[in-house]
Design a protein that fits this description.
Number of helices: 3
Strand content: under 5%
Distance between the termini: 32 Å
Length: about 90
């Protein structure tokens, strides 16, 4: 029993440190290249769907009223999910 608890604890610590390294990695990228906050890192994505913004759809997504249950449920629970969405 104790061995499985130790193993789970070790896995949790490894996941935490991995996430911490990625956080530091991207913080460094933002410090080195502040423009990436506003522009694509890969210029091949420039112009892709830039004129497709629909305020009505965005507000429906923001309020969880798109009419698509999976999308609405995912948005409703977004504050509980990390960047690896399980929806």
């Amino acid at each position: 029993m104790q061995q499985s608890v130790d193993r789970r604890r070790q896995q949790g610590l490894q996941a935490y440190f991995s996430r911490l390294r990625w956080h530091c990695h991207f913080m460094q990228k933002l410090e080195d290249e502040p423009a990436i906050e506003f522009y694509n890192m890969h210029r091949g994505y420039d112009g892709l769907r830039e004129h497709d913004f629909n305020p009505t759809r965005f507000n429906a997504w923001k309020t969880g009223t798109t009419g698509y249950p999976l999308i609405d449920a995912g948005r409703d629970r977004e504050r509980f999910l990390n960047n690896k969405r399980s929806v």
